[in-house]
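Page 37, top half.
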Amino acid sequence: MSINKTKDIFDDDFEVIYQEDYSDLLRDAADDDDDDYEDVLSTLSELDENRNNKGKNRKKKRRKAPNLVSPAAKTVKTGGKLVYKLVNLLLRTATLILTAVIFYVLAENFWKHHAAYGDVFRAFIEKNYVLAAYTGIALFLLLFEFFSFLVILTGSKKSDHKDRRLDTGKGLFSFIFIYAGAFLSYLLCGLIPSSPAFLQGVQGALNVYGSIHTTLLPLCIAGIISCLIRKFLVR
């Protein structure tokens, strides 16, 4: 190749680099790349730290924000409990009134028909077994209603997990028993024999008891409903 052609290829700024100088240049370039990489990592770290700080600040703001829903929910819950207690009190009062009315109906009818069997105050002196049997059945039913009234009045128990009393719907059995007994007496009293003598008193008492089964039906149905509501819906 001629000298003129060589001059055409390499211009005036061409610089010859030896092997040692080339290694230094590579090292400097690598150092520059490491510095750029460290700068990028540092920038990312700062961004991540800023993000975490913002998240913490948001949590603090959330914690400091007042909870306006909780007081309102407590107020609604307390109001609901008061309503339930009031309804329960009214239903229990109604149950007690129904029990008292049934007691009165039984007492009135048994007393009205007792004179046919003699003087009740002289029954034991005169050994009037017919009147004694009649009076015995009447007293059994009246005492049953009286104790049912007391059970309804105090018929609540403490909850297993809270220190409060729950209505268990006491009185349900008494209404079922009174009406079922009256209806069966109406159907079966005619089958009772008249001998021995005291069976006449049993027959007479059951005849009176059975004769009022239509009067007792609405009273007992209303009582059963009130007990079921107290037991399962309003406690």
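Page 37, bottom half:
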Amino acid sequence: MKFTKIASPEQIERKWVLIDAEGKTFGRIMTDVATRLRGKDKPYFTPNIDCGDFVVIINAEKAIINGNGKTATKTYHRHTGYFGNVKSEKFTELLATNPEKVFKLAARGMLPKTKLGRAMLKKLKVYAGAEHPHSAQIAK
């Protein structure tokens, strides 16, 4: 009988992946990012261990948004903790002012809602422009 090997945290090799979002579809970028952050693209994927890579997204403000009126109708809601204080932001306003937050929120929705998911989300770095401080890690 053959068993699947379970990876231990010492065996995990993390790489730095650079993704240029210019001219690419937002949703397709995010599915690829979530897969890489989770580590599901690796042969030694283990669900209870953080196996993912570090992901750096540049040119976030130049990503393409598809969908039937999605940019006009999609809203993000958050609650301040006080009675009746639900704050809402439209997708287009948030994308114009803070594109990094839009990418982080999309990735958070695709990752596990546990401590492990929060640790995976910390490995995502998003920048609106082409400049980023992680060139030493990504250099080949």
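Margin note: The chain has one domain: 13-138.
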